[in-house]
Amino acid sequence: MTKTSAATPPLLRRVNAGKLLGVLSSTGVMTGTGLIEATGLTRATVHAVCNDLIAMGWVVEHDPGRDDSLVGRPSRRFEFNSHAGYVLGIDVGAAKTTVLLADLRGETVAKAGRSFQRSTSAAERTSHVHDAVVETLSVAGITDASVLAAGVGVAAPVDRDGNILVDDEFWRQFDTGLTTRLTSLHGWPVLLENDANLAALGEHWRGEARGVDDLVVLLAGERFGSGLMDSGRLLHGSRGGAGEMVYLKLVEGVGDTHGIARIAREQGLSAVASSVPTRLRELPGPVTAELVFAAAADGDKVAQGILDDIATRTARVIATLGIVFNPALVVIGGAVASAAGSLLPQIEADLATFTATPPRVTTSSLGDAIVGVGAVRHALNYVETHALDLDLHPRP
User: Fold this and answer.
1) Distance of CA 78 to the CA centre of its chain
2) Which key words tag this protein in UniProt (predicted)?
């Protein structure tokens, strides 16, 4: 997938090409004059480098059209070729995987997923991920040759070299050799990252945290996990453990890493098994977090009490993050985010009693796609960094 050094432009033209590509990839159609103003390069350089980028497949040139009010040659018009290649964003959870295929502006082209048992073996989980990838590419009519990179998120710490921290039994189940296997099967680079870190990337890029550089994204479904961003930069720690929340076992009023969905479900089941009157006992099917939130919204006192406990517990979790990392914003993300909006008033009230510097708290609008969106951004970051070394095979 990488070109030989003989095919790359000389150093100065390469630097200028990167500068122009960076401008074009974040805008729409631009004239040569607009690119001159945006980059400070000369007209001759802009046109020469754009010709290089057109030949490489990164840029397309539009018909300049005709404007009788202008004197002289019409200005050339250039646009970043968002279909020069594609990236994948893959979210690998304990019981399901979701795959997003996106163009080079990050727009979703296709999506597929697979569910599996939590006891699924490493080989079987890898097979499910591979099947979801194959389905996604097939739906979009894209071949492996057009994929430039894949970002993959797992619910375990990942260091800067892409190695999973395996000190915890839960983390260990994600150390399956997935990146090596996918690269072997498909040929494209696979970039492994912690799911909460990717959630922070996704939220900062397309979510509620756009423009916020001091940020915590709190994944709060089955287990709490946090992605930390300081001055717009992800924090990893020496072994990838920054933001991991095993420390919650030591926090009074919390005691474990169980997330909002798990606590709601377990307390709901306990209420149904007790003699306390509650509508949860009358609801169809097994007790789920969604049913507990629905019952609370309908006025069930037991369900409301469960959510009150969860809100106070979550406020304690956020307070620890606020005290240690001092973010401007904490975003509650994951599949539970839409329901967690009802917890915000009490979270904010309790938070003010736990810390003198409470961060602003909100819920994500990205839903259960938050990790996949961040994985797409992670892959795009790789493409932007290595663009001039990549061979392009766009879809015909």
Assistant:
1) 30
2) Kinase, Transferase
